[in-house]
């Protein structure tokens, strides 16, 4: 399962005002580019910034001091806003069953007047998303979130959202608005369009991230750490190699690590040992 299917970044470190889009992530992703192209900044953003955004949105946190930003995180040249983008695929006929909008719908079919009868909610939502992607000239329909989030009274919508929503007729839009908001009445300009667009905005998922440094070290004797930088690795391996009577199953994990080492160095007879002094491997 791919937890983060895509990503867009703007205004963060080496990323300027124009969002840079990563349309599709897989379980394993390779970032390839020239030096200083921003590869490490993508990883930094995913490990330091992205995990904090869902809580910031939920708790209405509007200050950078509550997010892991420092002076170096701002793009220097023109000081653009930091943006996080979340994309929605538009090459489908209906929303996935686990889509957040599906959970909010009381029913999957909207009964529209006359010629619009039995048009599915999915088709109306996807019609708007497809139009926005066309206007933006992007493969996905992107929601761009300011970081830190703006107070609700100061939030606006991208111009492309305001243009895309007009692809729906009054009848289609009012019916979709009633289903999404469970409200009635209203008008196109003051309620149907802004309320429907707000409901269609994607939100980031809650994740836990751990950045493993490319350069690691074998920590000194007695060092300890829960990170993956090599600090404390000697003591951690020693506990697996010679576990106490209550944790004998840990030895199986040590044997698996040894087998992995043999595969990496291509030596079936390789042995992993932690000496009594615990000062080397």
Automatic annotation (TrEMBL):
InterPro entries attached to this UniProt entry: P-loop_NTPase
Protein name: AAA domain-containing protein
Organism: Candidatus Electrothrix marina
